[in-house]
Automatic annotation (TrEMBL):
One of its GO terms (biological process) is nucleoside metabolic process. Coiled coil: none annotated. Residues 1-30 form the signal peptide. It comes from Bosea thiooxidans. This is Purine nucleoside permease. Keywords: Signal. It comes from the Bacteria. It holds the Pfam family NUP. InterPro entries: Nucleoside_phosphorylase_sf, Pur_nuclsid_perm. One of its GO terms (molecular function) is catalytic activity.
Length: 343
């Protein structure tokens, strides 16, 4: 009797072991990727994501991801955050290579589905005093790469003529016209935002004779110029405007360091119809008539523009109107940008 029971027990054990092995051999169903509705890319944060001085990411984080867990992405500078509404975001890094390599890594992560996502590329920037002022928030209609050409010293060319010539072969990725329908939506949704200002910024603006420089902050639209070089001074500002016109773009209104490069990465996978460039002006791209360019680049204590805290708050205040509208009306936006209402 004992021998029969033992044999039965052995057969049961073998059977259970076989079942366990079969279960282990079954493929494990992969988790469904997170469907991203809007991705917000900032370029830097000053300290923590919340609770201290805000950089480009903090106001976005506090609005959308305070209760979200970070997800590390191999090859990206910082983790990505997502909320239950499909709004995701990350700090991508400053400069063209840094930011675009982070964006590439995030887009290739199988944990996310970006096939219907809208992209808001967000950060601070400079502006020419003839076209903008401290605290402005600007939507990019065109993105132009400041590089990808030939340059020479002014004294080595003809007096008064440009010192830049585009290099052949870069035509498809040195300039991008962003989707006018989407840009028009962004301008419409953001234009009613009550923008913050500061006494220090108001006082600083008065150093410039330009009426646009002296004006209160507003929501603007125009060409965003992307360059790793922190170009500065009236001469290079004029050159940037020359390049914008040379490429058939709108007036140059913003100087920044990332948008064209990130857009190229997105374009190669999803096109550019759902890309927005959003920038807040925290400095002028040149000094006032009473200071040299080098003096403006290295100001004495107390001589800086001010208004940084207010500008980063303005960026999120304007941009979140677009993000919230898209997610709240996802059935209309999922397959593409809907027509703008007539009124």
């Amino acid at each position: 009797m004992f021998q029969i029971t033992a044999k039965r027990s052995g057969r049961v054990a073998l059977s259970l072991a076989a079942c366990a092995s079969a279960a282990l051999a079954l493929p494990v169903a992969a988790a469904e990727p997170t469907k991203v509705k809007v991705f917000i890319g900032a370029m830097f944060e000053i300290g923590e994501n919340t609770g201290d001085r805000a950089g480009e990411f903090q106001h976005w984080y506090e609005r959308y991801w305070k209760t979200s867990q970070p997800h590390a992405v191999k090859g990206a500078l910082k983790p990505i955050y997502c909320n239950d509404d499909g709004v995701c975001g990350a700090v991508l890094g400053m400069g063209k290579v840094n930011s675009s390599s982070s964006m590439q890594a995030i887009l290739l992560d199988p944990a996310y589905d970006f096939s219907q996502a809208y992209f808001v590329l967000s950060g601070v920037a400079g502006t020419p005093p003839s076209r903008g002022t401290i605290g402005d928030v600007s939507w990019g209609s065109w993105l132009v790469d400041y590089d990808l050409g030939h340059r020479w010293a002014p004294e080595e060319g003809k007096p008064g003529e440009p010192v830049f010539m585009p290099r052949k072969g870069y035509e498809s990725y040195r300039v991008f016209q962003l989707n006018p329908a989407l840009v028009n939506w962004a301008v419409k949704l953001g234009s009613g935002t009550n923008l913050q200002d500061s006494d220090s910024a108001r006082q600083y603006r008065m150093r410039y004779p330009d009426k646009r420089a002296q004006a209160a902050p507003s929501v603007t639209v125009g060409t965003h110029m992307t360059g790793d070089t922190f170009f500065h001074g009236p001469g290079l500002s004029k050159e940037a405007q020359y390049m914008a016109k040379l490429y058939g773009a709108d007036d140059y209104v913003i100087t920044e360091m990332e948008a064209a490069a990130i857009t190229l990465v997105i374009k190669r996978q999803f096109g550019t119809d759902r890309v927005l460039s959003l920038r807040g002006a925290v400095n002028f791209d040149q000094g006032n008539p009473n200071e040299t360019t080098l003096q403006h680049l290295d100001p004495a204590p107390g001589q800086t523009a001010g208004g940084f805290a207010e500008t980063v708050a303005n960026i999120e205040a304007v941009g979140s109107r677009v993000v919230d509208h898209i997610t709240a009306n996802w059935a209309e936006w999922q397959k593409g940008v809907p027509p703008l209402p007539a009124k």
